[in-house]
Amino acid sequence: MIEAALLVTTVAARCAWATEAPADPCSLLSAAAVSKATGQTYGAPRKSIAPRPYANTVLGTDCSYEGSAGTLLFRIYFDPSPGDATNLFAKLKFFYSPATPVNGIGAEAYFDPHHGLHVRRGNVRYFLSLGENEKVLADLAGQVAAQL
Asked: What is 20-147's CATH number?
């Protein structure tokens, strides 16, 4: 009984902190969700590899959604651990200063001076950019966070 409780606790703790990358990370943000949030029509995302922010870090995925309101970029990284994600998020935040904190999305979130939204939740870091409509980006970022 004690072993079973320990196993459940260990698995639950791991799930609470680490998220595995889905086969298609772009599936975390559907074109329908983007269209609904913007009030414009967007097609399926074009998927490509996002560069490593530093040597010996993970590659990410870029999901580019084309629509009448412009191009939405959704960039996402699944780091090996929450600690790695936290450290990288802090390093990168330095380059995107001054940052405007955003509450209620992930563990940490901020808008950079160009209105890009950066979010960290557990071992996942992601970024959304679509002009100056911060309300739309916050809505979409919250939808992604809810799935992680």
From this structure: 3.40.1000.20
